[in-house]
From TrEMBL:
GO molecular function: ATP binding; ATP hydrolysis activity
Organismal lineage: Bacteria, Pseudomonadati, Bacteroidota, Flavobacteriia, Flavobacteriales
InterPro entries: AAA+_ATPase, ABC_transporter-like_ATP-bd, FeS-cluster_ATPase_SufC, P-loop_NTPase
Family matches, as NCBIfam families: sufC
Protein name, entry field: Fe-S cluster assembly ATP-binding protein
Record organism: Schleiferia thermophila
Keyword ATP-binding: yes
Record domain ABC transporter: where: 2-246
Amino acid sequence: MLKIKNLHVSVDDTPILKGISLEIKKGEIHAIMGPNGSGKSTLSNVIAGKEDYQITQGTIEFEGKDLLELSAEERAHLGIFLSFQYPVEIPGVSVTNFIKTAINENRKAKGLEPMPAKELLKLIRERMELLNMDKSFLSRSLNEGFSGGEKKRNEIFQLSMLQPKLAILDETDSGLDIDALRIVAKGVNTLRTPENAFLIITHYQRLLEYIVPDFVHVLYNGKIVKTGSKDLALALEEKGYDWIKEEVAI
């Protein structure tokens, strides 16, 4: 589904990613871990199409299409979703209007008619029930006055409504208490199918207790320096990153 080859990315002429290669297939969950400043969020932003990054080398393909030639909006229409580390507040735009517009823009890009209101409301109710969300969320302005946990849960609600092919979760677990973490994980596990894939960026092994990844990658100094199973995440939780840094230095 996603194929990244030898990706080099800079910000203001400062190299951040220094040769990332990664393949994600349908049905897989990949987790990326690493110390602060290693390039995790840069990687997610570049895949999603955020501007302000200079791609100096390498390629990114999504289902055979060259992503680097496409805008963020075009990538979203192909089925790429990014859950933000710090969701933006948008006063005056209700959650309902936001999700309705997003769904119908995606449908328009595929040549489909807008989703009928009755069908949309049914889907909204189902997804809100899945995530234990109160219906009062729907009339609130997007993320305005939301707690950290509410913002992250709202991101997963958007994911559940849009049903992307590739969902990138950038530290969705940061700031969540254990109950919110379980709800978010339940949403991801319920939405997982053989036809979609997840890329989960996290600092903490605890999320991976609830969402079991097929692969764990360690990103350090702009490169993937180690790949393993969930056991690798457990080792990082226990020993930190110093042993990884020592291995890389050898």
